[in-house]
Prior knowledge:
By secondary structure, the protein is of the alpha+beta class. It contains six helices and six strands, in the order αββββαβααααβ. A six-stranded antiparallel β-sheet has the order 4-3-2-1-5-6, covered by helices on one side. A hairpin with a 6-residue loop joins strand 2 and strand 3.
Amino acid sequence: MTIKRLLLTFMIAPLLCWANAAHAAVTITFYSHELGSQFPHAFATLKGKVDSTGEMVDTNIGFTATSTGPSILFGWVEGETSVLKPKYIASSAPHFSYELTDAEYRAVIAVREKWRTKKQKSYNLNMANCVHFIADVATAAGLKINPDSKYYKKPTSFLKEVTALSRERLASGRILYKG
């Protein structure tokens, strides 16, 4: 092997390895929207490309009551998974973005499907609200939650708690943004 060929090999090999290391993945970003008359107050966006299928993903997931009248204060009401408008997302607070594995992505989608198909009346301010939904999503994404959290009615505080509990997991190098 000539010196030129040897040098070329050493120069090109790292570039080829770098190109092969590049991959697509779905990124989940957890948001809160404190107070206000629009719902949900805790939700997540999903953007990217599923590694195994090449499917492009650009959506968001949340859970809320179908009607936000006084009845939500007194027990179970109809609930629905929701897709939020970009303006609402832009006015909400992102907490962190996290790169999902394909298995975690499928688990997150399964959570959305489970909540979407729940028997109605499926929303309860104390037992099945948007924060309970996002807790299931976070668990499916491989994050830690406190099932006995005192923050199930405080989306911002709840997501701060998830961040603290998942510090090791988020430090694994797959976190992309931390607000």
